[in-house]
Design a protein that fits this description.
By secondary structure, the chain is of the alpha+beta class. It has two domains: about 1-50 and about 255-405, no CATH class; about 65-240, no CATH class. The protein has helices at about 1-10, 15-55, 80-85, 120-130, 150-155, 190-195, 205-210, 230-235, 250, 255-290, 295-300, 305-340, 350-355, 370-385, 390-395, 400-405, and strands spanning about 60-65, 90-105, 110-120, 135, 145-150, 165-170, 175-185, 200, 220-225, 245-250, 345, 365. The strands form two sheets. A six-stranded mixed barrel has the order 2-3-8-5-7-6. A two-stranded antiparallel ribbon has the order 11-12. Strand 2 and strand 3 form a beta hairpin. It is elongated and about 105 Å long.
Length: about 400
């Protein structure tokens, strides 16, 4: 067996040009497949990151009844130390409390139902980057008694920075809630519906307005990435009191997951077509190698080498070319995608406008998830192994007289 392997190794370097062509086809195959998958998964990761940073976060701790009926009465008083314990869990990067409710926002002449969010300003800014969306005025600071409005709501109510917002609503357990709040800033939210009805307040100011002292409607949990959410859900659930539950962004926004899975399915079909093209390309290169060596095979068979041994050597040659090509292809693919991971491709024209309209950054992002690269390498290697069957069959049908004349 070692002798066959040694012969195969020597054979592939006897004609370096032919070998380099074969290896190059494998390298290009791995690179092309890895590029496509990295770009596809990178776009999904970007989509999820943008979606969770709009509003939900990666996970939320809530009262068991809150998601079905989102009222202050279904809020909860977070036990002492709960936030700290969640922050200690690996891959958790941030935990921020929120108070979410509704009120009638008004000026002297107009009124409109508004979504009120009591937030921890510094922590919330790390989640949703609100301070970067401020168009006029300033963002909230801890302890502020003022508010930040969505640009659409401010325009409807004809309010500007320094004006006073009137809010009337229902507080905790039916208590009347009303107050006057100076407008500190006006922001433009990427989601147009949010932009037309969103009011941000400091969380303590919101609790005071709704008479919901110590109450939170949710604790928003941020993680390193979206792949960790299911594991984190299990770990967080194990330390929660019985009246609390934890939901992932998938639980809260299943339509996004469905959209990604649907697109991933169509992407896999395209990838299948790509693999078919790759397989035919590699097949033509390998068969060219065999046809070029037809006379060589006829001579060595004529002097006594069995077809089975020739087949084994050819099989080893194909495997060696596949291994070398896949190894180099893996390295080049990773470096290639790593460059575009750090330097996303900017989108231009209508595509950039459409992307920005949905609140997403106008770039084509890439993923460096290791399984993307290993899986492409393994698949291309198995394709090369499958292709090695055809030259073996060709050798088994070899006729010495015809081969010698070739």
């Amino acid at each position: 067996m070692f002798t066959n392997f040694k012969l195969a190794w020597r054979n592939i370097w006897r004609n370096r040009r032919r070998t380099f062509i074969a290896i190059s086809s494998v390298i290009f195959s791995v690179l092309l497949a890895s590029w496509m998958r990295s770009m596809q998964e990178g776009s999904y990761t970007s989509m999820v990151d943008n979606v969770v940073k709009f509003y939900s976060g990666y996970l939320q701790v809530q009262d068991t009844a809150f998601w079905e009926e989102r009222t202050l009465d279904n809020g909860f008083a977070a036990p002492k130390g709960l936030k700290t314990n969640i922050e200690k869990i690996g891959q958790v990067t941030l935990v921020s409390g929120r108070v979410e409710s509704f009120a009638l926002a008004a000026n002297e002449m107009r009124s409109k139902p508004a979504m009120v969010m009591g937030i921890e300003p510094e922590a919330e800014d790390q989640i949703t980057a609100i301070s970067k969306k401020i168009k006029k005025g300033e963002f909230l600071e801890t302890g502020d008694k003022s508010v930040v409005l969505g640009k659409g709501l401010a325009k409807y109510l004809n309010l500007d920075v320094g004006d006073t917002l009137i809010m009337i609503g229902q507080g905790y357990h039916g208590i009347s809630a009303n107050g006057l709040f100076p407008v500190k800033g006006i922001m433009q939210h990427p989601n147009q519906e949010f932009d037309k009805r969103l009011v941000f307040m400091d969380i303590e100011n919101a609790r005071d307005f709704y008479s919901a002292y110590g109450i939170s409607t949710s604790l928003v949990v941020m993680a390193d990435n979206s792949y960790a959410v299911n594991q984190l859900k299990t770990e967080i659930a194990s330390i929660l009191p019985p009246r609390n539950t934890v939901m992932t962004w998938i639980d809260m926004q299943p339509e996004i997951e469905q959209l990604i899975e649907s697109d991933r399915g169509s992407g896999l079909i395209m990838l299948g077509i790509l693999y078919l093209v790759i397989a035919f390309g590699m097949f033509s290169v390998v068969m060219m190698m065999v046809k070029e060596r037809k006379r060589e095979f006829g001579v060595i068979h004529a002097v006594g080498m069995k077809k089975s041994k020739i087949s084994i050597i050819i099989f080893f040659e194909t495997i060696l070319i596949g291994l070398i090509g896949c190894a180099i292809g893996l390295l080049i693919s990773y470096l290639f995608c790593a460059y575009f991971y750090d330097n996303p491709i900017p989108l231009t024209g209508e595509m950039a406008k459409a992307t920005a309209q949905y609140g997403m950054e106008p770039y084509m992002f890439f993923s460096l998830k290791s399984s993307l690269f290993y899986s492409q390498m393994i698949l291309v290697f198995f394709i090369s192994m499958f292709i090695s069957i055809f030259p073996i069959l060709n050798i088994q049908k070899l006729k010495i007289t015809k081969a010698m004349r070739g």
